[in-house]
Design brief:
By secondary structure, the chain is of the alpha/beta class. The chain is built from 13 helices and 12 strands. 35% of the residues lie in helices and 15% in strands. Helix 2 runs parallel beside helix 8 and helix 9 packs parallel to helix 13. It binds pyridoxal-5'-phosphate. The site of pyridoxal-5'-phosphate (PLP) has 16 residues, from helix 3 and helix 4.
């Protein structure tokens, strides 16, 4: 089955009682048993719910994985994965990562005796220098947030395999439409489904997708034991969003390309971060592991003044100033004061995240209107 067909059909079966073509919202906490232990596979909705099952199967199919697990948020998915580790275990993470991931690693899990290394990974061999006998997990995000760095997934997978370490990829920015990390050798794919996968800025949810049966079982145990599972209404909305993922992503990519080229030629723009440019430092890797370059773009203004960036953000008409990304409508953000405010300034600047950096999530509107909006805002 090809991608678009999977997005519409995977995991979804007509409802056995009525033939309803759409998976019903099974708004129930519990399920009647004929006699103790004699049930139809469902006992309690923290553990299993049919609407969630359909979504989990659809996600596994889209990522070419065997098992999908859904969580109340993307952070709950990360929380569950890290809970498979024990005190003394070490994680090697990319240094340019989602602020919430940095926060849960350093502010929560570090105090339980886990150790995190934040490492630049444009050159993947850097990872080797941080591996020791306690290393259990390599955590990468690609493209990274918000600098759109590209990390070589195949290269990271080869290092992970050699040292018997697991590789997890946060695939939120790319989605399986653009890249399927399990096919490239990763062990775990993580999603904030809140973003492109849901696609309509109406639901917060997360997921993990894996191939290994044993790992899937350990994750399902924590999913149920810790209990950060999503409700059936939200699972329904996600299933509905997934049906147009391929069409939306195609348009996000087209619009992203138009916006990136417009910004590159703009006299008031210093630098544009977009993996589709052939002078992007890891353009060749992007081309080899991604099917297109997506709708996420960051840019820095000439002079790099925070107040100039804020003026531009206030003038936008169609790019709404808001946290989050990946919805049908265009959004803009200022990482230094919003998503990445929890990262100390010196560390932020060291990673190349400057004060006037503006991040765009280019939506699926008509690109002519988006370019006109950029022109009037940047001036
Ligand atoms: C939003 C996001 C998360 C966290 O997901 P939530 O659904 O907000 O909990 C993790 N990683 C990336 C790259 C994100 O953009």
């Amino acid at each position: 089955m090809k991608f678009g067909t999977k997005a519409i059909h995977a995991g979804v079966h007509p409802d056995p009682t009525t033939g309803a073509i759409m998976t019903p919202i099974y708004q129930t906490s519990t399920y009647v048993q004929a006699s103790p232990g004699n049930h139809k596979g469902y006992e309690y909705s923290r553990t299993h719910n049919p609407t969630r099952t359909a979504l989990q199967e659809a996600l596994a199919a889209l990522e070419n994985g065997k098992h999908g697990l859904c969580f109340a948020t993307g952070m709950a998915a990360i929380d569950t994965l890290i809970k498979t580790l024990k005190p003394g275990d070490e994680v090697i993470s990319t240094n340019d990562l989602y602020g919430g991931s940095y926060r849960i690693f350093t502010k929560i899990f570090q105090q339980y005796g886990l150790k995190f290394h934040f490492v630049p990974m444009s050159d993947i061999t850097t990872i080797e220098g941080y591996i020791n006998e306690n290393t259990r997990l390599i955590w990468i995000e690609t493209p990274t947030n918000p600098l759109l760095n590209i990390i070589d997934i195949k290269g990271a997978a080869a290092i992970a395999k050699k040292h018997n370490i697991l590789l997890a990829v946060d695939n939120t920015f790319a989605t399986p439409y653009l890249q399927t990390p399990l096919d490239l050798g990763a062990d775990i794919v993580m999603h904030s489904l809140t973003k492109y996968m849901g696609g309509h800025s109406d639901t917060v949810m997360g997921a993990l997708i894996v191939n290994d049966d044993d790992l899937a079982q350990r994750l399902a145990f924590i999913q149920n034991a810790s209990g950060a599972t999503p409700g059936p209404q939200d699972c329904f909305l996600l299933l509905r969003g997934l049906k147009t993922l391929h069409i939306r992503m195609q348009r996000h990519c087209e619009n992203g390309r138009a916006v990136a080229q417009f910004l590159r030629e703009h006299p008031k723009v210093e630098k544009v971060f977009w993996p589709g440019f052939d002078n992007h430092p890891n353009h060749e890797i992007a081309k080899s592991q991604m099917r297109d370059f997506g709708g996420m773009i960051s840019f820095v203004l000439k002079g790099d003044k925070m107040e100039d960036a804020i003026k531009v953000l206030e003038k936008f008409k169609y790019f709404s100033l808001a946290e989050s990304l990946g919805g049908v409508e265009s959004l803009c953000g200022h990482p230094a004061s919003m998503t990445h405010a929890s990262i100390p300034r010196e560390e932020r600047l060291k990673g190349g995240l400057s004060d006037s950096l503006i991040r765009l999530s280019v939506g699926i509107e008509d690109y002519e209107d988006l370019l006109a909006d950029l022109e009037q805002a940047i001036g």
